[in-house]
Each structure stands twice: as structure tokens, then as C-alpha cells.
Amino acid sequence: MAEPVSVANEFIKYIPVGIGTLVSVIISSLWVTFLHFREKKQDKLSELNQELNEILQISIQYPYLESKAYCDNWNHLDPNIHSDEKALRYYNFTTLVFNYLSKLSAHCKYDDECIQKNHINMKSWIRLHKKAWENPLNDPNENIDSYDAKFVSLVNKCLGKN
After folding, report:
1. Residue 50, SS3?
2. pLDDT digits (tens, 9 = 90+) for 75-118
């Protein structure tokens, strides 16, 4: 007569197969997650590069926006500033620049060395537009209220205020 087969013995035979399947699923899931986040980071970098290209195109079209002489003469208290198309364009341009720098800073986890070595010379760009940063057109606290504290701190560091 044949020996009865225990359910436990049958189950034990399949444990290695189950464990192998589970490990494969976990490894596959981790790999797919890694690839997703790597692709998302690349997409973000592509968006930042596109935004930088758009800013550079504007500065080519209106060269005074990056002219040290013009930037140094920025005067937010000029009574005619709200009717001066060049001044308003400059202020809007600096808003685009600082918005871009804020996004880039977040992308680089606010590491100025990463930004400087791998992307752009942020310090010179911030220093060029220092007056627009320090003297916003609409509200004296516009920049410190509109940007996150880490970015404001990074800008202040670039301006030698930390």
C-alpha cells in the first residue's frame, strides 16, 4: 500500500518556487521604479534646458536685458517706470530668470556647486540682476515672499549676504 502524501510535504516542495517568484517580482518592481524616477529626472532637466533656451532667446532679442550698464541703472522708484516698456520688460525678464533659477536650484537640491559646475554660472547672473532682486517693482517683500526660503538663502549667499 502506498504511503499517504502529507499536504505539508507537498506545500514545502513549492516554497522555493514561491520565494523565487516573490524575489523576482520585488526586483522587477524596484528596477521599474528606478527607471521611472531616472526618466522623470531627465524630463525635468529637459524642461529646465528648454526654459533656459527661451530666456536666452529673449536676451538675444533684447540685448539690454543682460547689459551691466542697464541692469546697474535699474530704479524701481522711477516715477515713470510703470509706463516705460523697456523697464517693464526688464522686470518681467528678471522674474523669468529668478523663476528659472529657483527651479534649477530645487533640481540641484540647492547645492550651488552643482549648479555652478553642471549647469550655469548662477552667481554672476544673480549679481547682474541684483538691483531687480533687492528692489522688486510691486512690493518690497515680493521676492522673499514668492520664493522658498532655501532659494532666497542661496540668492543671498551669492550676493554675499550670508
Report:
1. helix
2. 888 888 888 899 999 999 999 999 999 999 999 999 989 998 88
Give 30's contacts (C-beta < 8 A, 6+ positions apart).
none
What are residue 112's phi and psi, to 5 degrees? Answer: -60, -30
Instruction: List alpha helices for the chain, DSSP H.
Output: 7-61, 68-72, 85-107, 112-118, 122-128, 130-134, 142-146, 149-158
What is the Cβ-side half-sphere exposure of residue 159, based on CA atoms within 13 angstroms? 16
Strands (E), the chain: none
Give the closest residue to 98 by CA, choosing from 129, 119, 74. 129
d(CA 18, CA 30): 18
Angle at 84 between CA 88 and CA 145, to 5 degrees: 30
Per-residue pLDDT tens digits for 123-157: 999 999 999 999 998 888 999 899 999 999 999 99
Taking alpha carbons only, the member of 147, 46, 43 closest to residue 97 is 147
For residue 147, the SS3 value is coil
Gap between the Cα atoms of 111 and 115, Å rounded: 7
